[in-house]
Amino acid sequence: MDMKAILAITAVGISAGATQADESALVLGKSTYGALCTVCHGDDAKGTGSVAELFAVKPPDLTTLTKRAGGEFPFADVYQVITLGMEAPGHGASEMPIWGDYFKTDALEDRGVKPGDAMYIAVGRVLSLTYYLESIQE
């Protein structure tokens, strides 16, 4: 099974029970956000990162995902966008990186990590980041 299929299945399964992540998942998610996402989305996650003005499509305010989805955090959608990137038809090309592949490659660079284990590490990082984003909703 390829990475896209595994990550998509995981997102669907997890979204049904995505209420509150434990503290360690939030810490990892916040750390990942700080290291990889702030340059575009900003420290405050409002789309005000240092390079945001360079994009044709401005990075969105990530603190209003729940509000824009009608009051329920769109866990599976957020997970999928982080994992597979996104397309914005009619709104120009998206600059959103495909983080699922990055996380898998990053895990494989660690000595002794097998490809199957790298997949689980990537899933965990995406889940942690998604839980963190859920935790900062206004």
UniProtKB/TrEMBL annotation:
Protein name: C-type cytochrome
Entry keyword set: Heme, Iron, Metal-binding
PROSITE patterns per record: CYTC (PS51007)
Domain named Cytochrome c: residues: 24-137
InterPro entries: Cyt_c-like_dom, Cyt_c-like_dom_sf
